[in-house]
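Subject: Sanity check before I submit

Could someone independently write out the structure tokens for this chain? I want to compare against mine line by line before I put it in a report. The sequence has 326 residues.
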Amino acid sequence: MRRMNPSCTIKFMSINGTRVKSQDLVVRTEGLTKRYGNVAAVADLNLCVRRGEVYGFLGPNGAGKTTTLRMLVGLVRPTHGRADVQGGPAGSPESLARIGVMVETPAFYPFLSGRDNLQVLARQAGVARKRIAEVLEIVGMAGRGADRFAAYSLGMKQRLGVAAALLKDPELLILDEPTNGLDPIGMADMRTLIRSFGNDGKTVLLSSHQLGEVQQLCDRVGVIFKGIMKTEGTVAELRGSVSLVVRATPTTRAEACLVELLGRQKVTVREDEIHIEVAPQEGAAISRILIGAGIDLYEMRRDERSLEDVFLSMSAAADDGEDRVA
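---
Independent answer below. Compare away.
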């Protein structure tokens, strides 16, 4: 029997504690599958993207991210399943009219300038010429629009690809590895730009294998391995609860004090560190109690898994053939 994501099949879904109407989902797939012979590039994918959010589609190279995005814009026909994008079937004229797309490395006429390439696209899409200057300014290319595309660096080509995706002032942006080839400053600028789209009410579906980028940018994340969606949720949900690490002497007395205060189940000792499952804001009160008990407290810090920790744990589980999140 095909696995279904309950949040994708009911009239209302809950995201971060908020009930969301199905019509507020701008991307919705059910059982989306693409096979090449005996190889499943994407298998039974159920994906929901909410209007106005920045959604991170995370996975290693070869996980099926680009294949999924190509199905969402009609460049690849799925073997099984369905996808609705912006209220229409994936790849349909009504869907494409409301989205901007940059999938894989942007392709332009090498002998034309960046501005002239955008002019070609604007004419085909029925977009006013004044929009070209606007999008070049948005992506930081206003001063290089007259240069030939062949002379652009990889990062500049990426920027022009984003500019092309913005021409129609779309409600949904689908961006495949948008920071690829950018230097650290360019990456920071692109992250700020993408975040601004979400703040302005646009929806962004962003594929990436850069964990720090996803952690900084995205409201929700879907993680795909070997064509299979492993988990979906907010970055905070994926990272799990935050706890505190305490280093104090004598360690045994500090441990005994914390066990008496919090209970055995919330206190774990690893070498000379004591891990306690409490909210970080309780740290001040706990430090006062330890010091009042004559214990020397010399470190207290937050302890939370990074998205990288989660990703590596899931990768190990996927390699072992497990479907659960560690």
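---
OP: Matches mine. For the report I'm noting this point. DSSP finds eleven helices and 16 strands in the chain.
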